[in-house]
Design a protein that fits this description.
The complex is a heteropentamer, with 2 copies of chain A (277 residues), 1 copy of chain B (306 residues), 1 copy of chain C (311 residues) and 1 copy of chain D (306 residues). Chain B is α/β, with parallel strands linked by helices. Helices cover 37% and strands 21% of the residues of chain B. Chain B is elongated. Chain D has helices spanning 2-7, 18-61, 67-71, 84-115, 120-133, 137-151, 158-182, 186-194, 199-228, 231-236, 256-266, 273-301, and one strand at residues 241-242. The longest helix of chain D is centred in the first third of the chain and has 44 residues, at 18-61. In chain D, 54% of the residues are buried. Classes of the chains: A alpha/beta (277), B alpha/beta (306), C mainly alpha (311), D mainly alpha (306). Strand 2 of chain B pairs antiparallel with strand 1 of chain D. The structure holds adenosine-5'-triphosphate (2 copies), magnesium ion (2 copies) and phosphate ion (PO4). Chain D: It comes from Evansella caseinilytica.
């Protein structure tokens, strides 16, 4: 697809994302957000967002509570439209196609852009059925193929060894950390292209968090990942790019190491050093 | 062939575990006649034709007729003769029907068992006390207004309501269409009337003999003097030409001839009613049986249907 | 990955197929909409049948006769009279008796369960009381007729074999759980902080209940009363069996009275032939009954919404 | 205690006289105690009635409720009478009410909760359902009589009774299904949408299975209401004597409560009918008890696992 | 009553309250807690509490969330007994009488020991009726006297000027801070001896907080006050004595200035300097 052409630029307002045009200019842009605005009724929740997302990168989104992180990530697979009275302007290109296009079926988009949620949310079904859910709704009925997919996905989510003997047990019997990896496996089962993760470790204990973080590092080999986190250290540890949101605006966007070492914006610095949020 | 087997069946297989007929017989109409008809139907189904289903409702004489004249029912019981309008409607709908007397009922005046004065009354006394304004303008009639040595207590009148053929018989035939006393307590259910009188020392009610006979431990019947000394209602006195005759009335059932022609089971049931049922079960349900010749006549009429 | 099937391709192929099936996706809401409309159709059905036949009735009988005279003799061969007042008094008197039983007992039950009982006691008592609501009304009718009336007779010799008192009491018992559970819900939604505030001033439970909890929950409590009344007005079998069918215009609850519901039963199961005024009268009565209960239900919802305290 | 008053600083003008407060205190507390017991008593009142009611029913049905009673067909003679017909009629009724209310009720609930836009139309349907829940059952009987019995010409058949009963209990099913659907956490829906599932796939595969226990509980409660309901069937017209067992949806039928009704009012004619009514009540109450227990078990077993 | 005789002493465990026997030995003890233990079911929420409370003092109770502060203060007027399955051992003397005595009526105790709650909880009645509630239940019916009491109490709670013209309006029309002062007025109306306050300002904005703090300073002239607070500065500002609770035990009890300047216990120091809680 098209190579990253956007370099450091200023939008009309002061909220321009700054992508330092170093090293990874040759990476493809998977999703590209352009002049995105979003309103919940009267509440202007996202303001003129411009943000690229590179292939096989981990992009972290950080910012204080209520700044619009979840809203943004849910816009990327149009889950935000489940909220009544949402209004959206601007465009988001996924592989060069505008996801808000009339002809773009949301179901198709969501099959390509998977999502992992803050609280592990397995279905109250067996472990097997949880993972097989996606392939099944997309019309794969063949038992043998389903089995292969389930195993492959569970392996991919680094949970296969722990659950292979209890695939028919209810997913609610798993620990929180296992449930979250199961949800990742469920997401992998439809072989998405992009994975969105909204604070995937915030409900987990430190050990499970570590496991999921390691997993994300592995997954980025094959998938492009966007992760929302309120944990600065986590963003620093696992992401390649970081965007800092504040009050619905992108204050700064750059390579993670740069954001955390030499932020351009005073507000970013204040946030990173724990002066608010 | 089916017709033949039917005739044999009703003759030979009585008491056997079941005849060859099936299908349904639908009966509606009078609540007065209901206990007798239900009893006959029950017996018919358990001893004669196990596969025939006879359903007996009791929406009342007139309501039953409404269904009968449009052909919804096969039999329509009645506690009064069929009316001209009803015949006209049957005609209009092209339904041929026949009215049969089934048994005799005696209109019974009942009082509380503790009432020890009014155990005998004259026909005339009954006729005046139940008519409005006859004794007193305000209708607050006292027992002593009828005979001075009776208690000076208000009489509480009870009776079945206008839904019932019994009401019509009482008002039209016995009271000769004079207006019923004001303040009479009219009820839909005979059970209610029985309870009311059984609890009311100064009460008096009228209804069919059957409801009295089954409750003679709770209520008492007035013996009526029709001019030849007091006559208590009983199965004997209310029988044809018995001494209670002025207050007896026949109860009927109307048979749809068309139904009897079309459905063997209807005809079979009709035959059963007049060959056996009406005579055998009248007594236990509180009716006097009709004379045998009369039942025989009806039976022959039915057997002649083809 | 290499050894497995290309899930991505599989999905894309199948998806094209399934998107063709998106007709299903589109038609399901339409289908469900049709199902949901049945409930509306039911209301339309009720209203239209009632209104049409009621209209026919009022062609024969004037509104003035219906609502202002006091005689009801629908099947009289001499001179039929149609007044709803005897039925209204019957309905009002039985419902009044019912509410005189249900309101005090229901409310005190609610207070006991919500304010006095320990959770363990509450857990046992509450479902037991709700059993009362699940007993078929025909059973209550039987109970009123064969037990309560004879029992009351011991104390009130003048009581008729059928009367308004006994079915009224039994209806009240039947309605206790309704009043109790709705009132209890209302009291439970009063925040505990309010109770603690009063307790901390040295108030006894009774004072907390009477002066704080009940006033705060009053809208829900009144709503429960109104719904109880509406239930009593619409109740049929208990009164049909135990209150008789006397159509006298009277307020004497020791005597037989007929309610609107019992009248409907009598006319439909009785002798009135369709097409007669007597037959139409049953629709006029039913329509009155329908409007009555509808208004009460709407009123109950209105007050419970309008006066809900903002804590 | 005296020195309590002394504790109060002299400049503080005191309105609260501790001695008075104290004196009143014991009366207030006593009152509270008494009221506590009064309230308990009042709470127990309902239960006492329940116990009496059950005791009477059991006592009256002893010797009458036996296997024969359960397996015999209806009869006019008390010692032969049984309720197999009423039991099977009740089952037939459920065969209509169950599926009809399930489809209508759940469909309506899904529409309201998942599809309808929260607006005027939504609240119109919602209000309509709440109002229907408050319409007296006898009015539903009239609806059934007019529409199903007359207009559709079903007569007093199982299908007419079943459809009437279905409309009557529909609001119960809708409201409980709505609650069950609403209690399915949003995150499960999101999980499904996130996989590219369509709305209907999400409802079918995620929402309904999770809501099932709640829906089932509501269904059982609705069915038990339908089993015990009498008034609409009285209006529709159930034969007083129906011995045969219904074999199709278009047959006449009778159900347990109707049998109780007729036996209760006919107990004036035949005393033993009161015992038959009591025995039938016991059967009915047992059925309802079992159904409600199942509902409670389902509810407890599947309660909130999220 | 008895003068403060308890001086620094060690209980068997390490949780002995340490009252430095300086200056105020001549003040009376109003309430005295001795070897108090409390269980919620199996949960041992208060462990061997020994704590005096001096007349016309403000005693602050501080400690991390869940340490038993609210439980303790609610034990002082026996409100804790409203919780089912509570078990209590030990004794609390109010003016030398054990409040757990069979003959001691809770209603009487609560008339002497008033309470103000964390969230303002006025009754949904008029302002007048809120304040008059207490006197009324205690048998005062005379309208004139009630009026006087209401005015005096509202003045005492420093809210009279703000509400005198709207006494018949519903209390819910007041702002949060006003509501809280109304609740204090309600408490004053029954002329208590001791006032318990459980985080009375935590639901208020800074301005209202200040007003309530000033009020507490005034009230202590006439009443003995115990205040639970999670706000260290507040404790330091307004209290004379401070007790530090941790896991249901009293770790340290002393003059407020001493606690905040030279805590004896490492855990107190850690808490005060914000190292946990
Ligand atoms: N469903 C909704 N309806 C209306 N407003 C909403 C909705 N969801 C979020 N908002 C508003 O949109 C803004 C952004 O919310 P969002 O959930 O995106 O924040 P966030 O950055 O994810 O916060 P957090 O870190 O707390 O998850 C907030 O002001 C919030 O109140
Ligand atoms: N009603 C109750 N039932 C059972 N346990 C309770 C109850 N209330 C409190 N607890 C437990 O008792 C302990 C002390 O609780 P308490 O409310 O006294 O703490 P706290 O110091 O006031 O905390 P916070 O600062 O959060 O208000 C906690 O472990 C709490 O879980
Ligand atoms: Mg968020
Ligand atoms: Mg607390
Ligand atoms: O029910 P009847 O026989 O009196 O019409």
């Amino acid at each position: 697809m098209c190579a990253l052409t956007i370099t450091a630029r200023k939008s009309t307002k002061a909220n321009a994302p700054l992508a330092s045009d170093t090293e990874n200019t040759e990476k493809n842009i998977v999703m590209n957000t352009r002049a995105l605005n979003l309103w919940y009724g009267e509440n202007h929740a996202l303001k003129n967002i411009n943000l690229p997302m590179l292939e096989n990168d981990v992009t972290a989104i950080i910012g204080p509570s209520g700044c619009g992180k979840s809203t943004y990530i849910k816009t990327l697979n149009r889950m935000v439209e489940l909220v009544p009275n949402v209004r959206i302007s601007g465009e988001i290109l996924y592989r060069d196609r505008n996801i808000f296009d009339k002809t773009y079926l949301v179901e198709e988009l969501r099959t390509r852009v998977g999502m992992v949620f803050q609280k592990p949310n397995p279905f109250p079904k067996s472990i097997f059925d949880n993972v097989a859910y996606g392939p099944k709704i997309h019309g794969i009925r063949d038992k043998k193929i389903l089995k292969e997919i389930v195993e492959k996905s569970l392996r991919g989510a680094a949970i296969w060894e722990e659950v292979k003997d209890r695939l028919n047990e209810n997913a609610y019997g798993l620990s929180g950390g296992q449930q979250q990896r199961l949800c990742i496996a469920r997401c992998l089962a439809i072989e998405p292209d992009v994975i969105l993760m909204d604070e995937p470790t915030s409900a987990l204990d430190p050990k499970s968090t570590l496991k999921v973080e390691e997993l994300i590092q592995e997954l980025k080999e094959k998938y492009s990942i966007i992760i929302v986190t309120h944990n600065m250290q986590q963003a620093a540890r696992i992401s390649d790019k970081t965007a800092f949101f504040l009050n619905g605006e992108v204050i700064e966007y750059d390579n993670t190491d740069l954001i955390f070492s030499t932020p351009n914006d005073k507000r970013t610095e204040d946030y990173i050093t724990g002066r608010f949020g | 062939a089916a017709c033949g087997s039917d005739e044999e069946g009703s003759g030979n297989q009585a008491g056997a575990s079941g005849g060859e007929l099936s299908g349904s017989v639908v009966i509606d109409g009078s609540g007065t006649v209901y206990p007798l008809m239900a009893r006959i139907a029950d017996e018919f189904m358990s001893t004669e034709e196990e596969n025939v289903s006879v359903e007996v409702s009791r929406s009342g004489t007139s309501a039953g007729m409404k269904k009968f004249v449009v052909g919804e029912t096969d039999f329509s019981n009645a506690s009064r003769p069929i009316k001209e309008e009803e015949l006209a409607e049957l005609d209009e709908n092209g339904i041929e029907s026949e009215e049969f007397k089934v048994a005799l009922d005696g209109l019974t005046l009942v009082i509380n068992p503790e009432n020890d004065w009014a155990t005998e009354m004259t026909e005339e006394e009954i006729k005046t006390m139940f008519v409005t304004g006859k004794i007193k303008a305000d209708d607050d009639v006292l027992w002593s207004d009828i005979r001075s040595d009776w208690p000076a207590e208000k009489i509480n009148f009870y009776g079945p309501n206008e839904n019932h053929g019994t009401y019509e018989f009482f008002v039209e035939t016995i009271l000769e269409e004079q207006e019923l006393v004001e303040g009479i307590n009219l009820q839909q259910e005979y059970s209610t009337l029985v309870s009311l009188v059984s609890e009311d020392k100064y009460g008096i009610a009228f209804f069919g003999y059957g409801y009295y006979a089954n409750n003679d431990d709770k209520i008492a019947a007035v013996a009526i003097d029709f001019g030849n000394g007091p006559v208590a209602p009983s199965l004997d006195t209310i029988a044809e030409d018995g001494p209670y005759a002025p207050f007896t009335r026949p109860v009927f059932t109307n048979l749809s001839i068309d139904a009897a022609k079309e459905k063997e089971q209807v005809k079979a049931f009709a035959e059963y009613v007049f060959s056996k049922g009406a005579a055998e079960f009248a007594g236990e349900t509180g009716f006097a049986p009709l004379p045998e010749e009369e039942l025989q006549e009806s039976l022959e009429l039915i057997q002649a249907i083809d | 990955m290499s050894k497995t099937v290309g899930v991505k391709d599989l999905i894309q192929k199948k998806d094209k197929l399934s998107k063709m099936k998106s007709g299903v996706e589109k038609s399901i809401p339409v289908f469900l909409f049709c199902l949901a409309s049945i409930s509306v159709l039911t209301t339309v059905g009720i209203v239209s049948t009632l209104v049409y036949e009621t209209f026919l009735f009022f062609k024969d009988v004037s509104l003035i006769e219906f609502f202002t005279t006091t005689e009801l003799k629908p099947l009289s061969p001499v001179e039929p009279k149609f007044s709803i007042l005897p039925l209204l008094t019957g309905t009002v008197m039985t419902s009044l008796v019912a509410m005189l039983v249900a309101i005090p007992i229901g409310l005190t039950t609610a207070v006991f369960l919500s304010e006095y009982a320990s959770p363990a006691v509450r857990k046992v008592l509450k479902p037991l009381i709700e059993v009362l609501a699940g007993i078929p009304t025909i059973v209550y009718g039987f109970f009123a007729f064969t037990f309560v009336t004879p029992l009351l007779r011991e104390f009130i010799p003048a009581l008729g074999a059928t009367n308004a008192l006994s079915p009224g009491i039994v209806m009240g018992i039947m309605i206790i759980p309704l009043v109790a559970s709705l009132s209890e819900d209302a009291m439970n939604s009063v925040p505990n902080a309010m109770r603690e505030g009063a307790m901390a001033l040295g108030a006894t439970k009774l004072e907390v209940t009477l002066r704080v909890v009940i006033p705060a929950a009053i809208s829900g409590i009144i709503a429960s009363f109104v719904l109880g009344i509406s239930r009593a007005i619409g109740e049929t079998m208990i009164v049909t069996i135990a209150s008789g069918s006397s159509k006298n215009f009277t307020f004497d609850i020791t005597q037989s009275m007929q309610t609107m519901t019992a009248y409907i039963v009598e006319v439909t199961s009785g002798d009135a032939a369709s097409g007669t005024t007597a037959y139409y009268s049953l629709y006029a009565v039913a329509f009155t009954l329908f409007v009555f209960t509808l208004l009460m239900n709407m009123f109950a919802r209105y007050i419970s919404r309008k006066y809900r305290e903002a804590y | 205690m005296k020195d309590m008053n002394m504790d109060i600083a002299p400049e503080k003008k005191s309105y609260i006289d501790l001695n008075v407060v104290q004196k009143k205190m014991s009366a207030r507390i006593l009152l509270n105690k008494i009221v506590n017991y009064l309230f308990l008593l009042s709470t127990l009142f309902g239960l006492i009635v329940l116990v009496i009611l059950l005791y009477r029913v059991v006592a009256d049905s002893i010797g009458w409720l036996n296997i024969d009673f359960l397996t015999n067909k209806l009869s006019t003679s008390p010692d032969r009478a049984g309720i197999v017909g009423a039991i099977i009629g009740t089952v037939w009724l459920m065969i209509i009410v169950g599926p009809v209310t399930m489809v209508l009720g759940i469909g309506t609930a899904i529409y309201l909760e998942e599809y309808a836009k929260k607006g005027r139309f939504h609240s119109f349907i919602q209000t309509n359902i709440t109002n229907l829940a408050g319409v007296p059952s006898i009015v539903f009987g009239l609806l059934g009589l007019t529409i199903f019995v007359r207009v559709f010409g079903f007569g007093s058949s199982i299908i007419a009774g079943g459809l009437t009963m279905s409309l009557l209990v529909l609001p119960i099913v809708v409201v409980s299904a709505q609650e069950a659907i609403r209690s399915v956490p949003q995150f499960l829906r999101e999980a499904s949408y996130g996989m590219g599932a369509t709305k209907w796939q999400t409802i079918k595969n995620v929402v309904l299975p999770s809501a099932l226990p709640g829906v089932l509980t509501g269904m059982i409660l609705a069915l038990s209401r339908a089993i015990g309901e009498t008034a609409p069937l009285v209006v529709i017209g159930i034969p007083a004597l129906l011995i045969p067992i219904p074999g199709s949806l278009f047959d006449s039928f009778t159900v347990l409560p109707m049998q109780i009704y007729y036996w209760t009012i006919d107990s004036v004619l035949v005393d033993e009918y009161a015992h038959l009514a009591a025995a039938t009540i016991l059967v009915l109450l047992t059925v309802l008890f079992v159904m409600n227990s199942v509902a409670i078990i389902i509810r407890n077993k599947f309660q909130k696992r999220y």
